[in-house]
Amino acid sequence: MPYPLQLGFQDATSPIMEELLHFHDHTLMIVFLISSLVLYIITLMLTTKLTHTSTMDAQEVETVWTILPAIILILIALPSLRILYMMDEINNPLMTVKAMGHQWYWSYEYTDYEDLNFDSYMIPTTDLKPGELRLLEVDNRLVLPMELPIRMLISSEDVLHSWAIPSMGLKTDAIPGRLNQATLMSTRPGLYYGQCSEICGSNHSFMPIVLELVPLKHFENWSTSML
């Protein structure tokens, strides 16, 4: 969960989100160095007298300011492509869950089980218990086992939605008539919150996502009790 006045990202829960955080820091450092260099050059031009008037016509300078940006772009593009392919890769998922977007709630179906499906509605503010989060709590949480690769199949039955959980680096559009997939794996148990991230109508702000990740033994007990 984010906290008040937070400036950075939420703590990473999945390996993909950890990679995204590293890439963010890597790119931010490059941007910081470029900004510092530009600011330094502007300061020099404003505070010193130009003595070498032919510097800007030199072949060497033109070569440097052509090659250097190309190298910087490569340093950004290579790790970006690596993470992009990692996010699309799904290797032997041990479970498949289908999430369907509706106006304005989510429904989940565990395709590896018979008759294990439910709707997930936001809990109204008047019904919240002490300690529960306003506009983020649901009546039925999506319970999944931790440390296992899980395939999420995401679609919609009416308009465009988006199934997003920031701490896991997940954001997949739910499109009517189309089935999108995403990989989900958590490194630790806990409650993780998300919301629909696509403007989908008047109650767009009221369709949260709550992911409860538990050890495999607890998940088996929960699934048995739900069947």
Automatic annotation (TrEMBL):
Q: Look up the record and name the cofactor or cofactors this protein needs.
A: Cu cation
All copies of domain Cytochrome oxidase subunit II transmembrane region profile, residue ranges: 1-91
The Cytochrome oxidase subunit II copper A binding domain sits at: 92-225
> Cofactor stoichiometry and binding?
Binds a copper A center.
Biological-process GO terms, alphabetical: ATP synthesis coupled electron transport
Q: Which CDD domains match?
A: CcO_II_C (cd13912)
Any matching Pfam family: COX2
One GO term in the molecular function aspect is: oxidoreductase activity
Name the membrane topology term: Multi-pass membrane protein
Spans traversing the lipid bilayer: 27-46, 66-85
Compartments reported by the entry = Mitochondrion inner membrane
Catalytic activity line of the entry = 4 Fe(II)-[cytochrome c] + O2 + 8 H(+)(in) = 4 Fe(III)-[cytochrome c] + 2 H2O + 4 H(+)(out)
Any Gene Ontology CC annotation: mitochondrial inner membrane
Q: Provide this UniProt record's keywords sorted from A to Z.
A: Copper, Electron transport, Magnesium, Membrane, Metal-binding, Mitochondrion, Mitochondrion inner membrane, Respiratory chain, Translocase, Transmembrane, Transmembrane helix, Transport
Q: According to its UniProt record, which protein family does this protein belong to?
A: Belongs to the cytochrome c oxidase subunit 2 family.
Q: What does this protein do?
A: Component of the cytochrome c oxidase, the last enzyme in the mitochondrial electron transport chain which drives oxidative phosphorylation. The respiratory chain contains 3 multisubunit complexes succinate dehydrogenase (complex II, CII), ubiquinol-cytochrome c oxidoreductase (cytochrome b-c1 complex, complex III, CIII) and cytochrome c oxidase (complex IV, CIV), that cooperate to transfer electrons derived from NADH and succinate to molecular oxygen, creating an electrochemical gradient over the inner membrane that drives transmembrane transport and the ATP synthase.
Q: Which PANTHER family match?
A: CYTOCHROME C OXIDASE SUBUNIT 2 (PTHR22888:SF9), CYTOCHROME C OXIDASE, SUBUNIT II (PTHR22888)
Q: What is this protein called?
A: Cytochrome c oxidase subunit 2
State the organism named in the record.
Tolypeutes matacus (Southern three-banded armadillo)
